[in-house]
Amino acid sequence: MSNPFKRIIHHHSVPEVLKEKVLSDIGMIKLTLDIADLFLVKYPNTIGDLLNNGNNNSNHKS
């Protein structure tokens, strides 16, 4: 099986359509990671902190 990257001619540029597709895919991956980070890491941490602070405040008032 031949490596397709070895067939690229160095003095030719990559087609703009291919560049746009790659950059679009990278953007989609970054967006997916940001959304996953927001909802799977930051949101639960925030809710946990709010609940823990609520419990701590009610314990200190007693």
Structure commentary:
There is one protein chain. The protein has 62 residues and is mainly α. The chain has a domain at 25-52. The chain has one helix spanning 16-61. The longest helix is centred in the middle third of the chain and has 46 residues, at 16-61. The model has no long low-confidence stretch (mean pLDDT 83).
Per-chain topology:
Layout: H1 16-61
**Which percent band covers the strand fraction?**
under 5%
User: How many alpha or pi helices?
Assistant: 1
Look at the structure and give the mean pLDDT.
Answer: 83
* E-strand count: 0
Helicity range of the residues? Answer: over 70%
Element-level helix/strand string: H
Rg, Å, rounded: 24 Å
Low-confidence segments: none
Largest sheet composition: none
Overall form: rod-shaped
Whole-Å distance between the termini? 74 Å
Structural class: mainly alpha
